[in-house]
Amino acid sequence: MADDGNDKDNKRFKSEPGSTLSCYAVRLKPGQEIKDFLLNFVKVKKLGAPFVLSCVGSVTQATLRLANASIDTPNEIIEVKGRHEIVSLVGTLADEGHLHASLSDKDGNVIGGHVMGNMKVFTTAEVVIGNCDTLLFTRETDDETGFDELVVRGK
Question: Which top-level group of life is the source organism from (predicted)?
Answer without folding.
Answer: Eukaryota
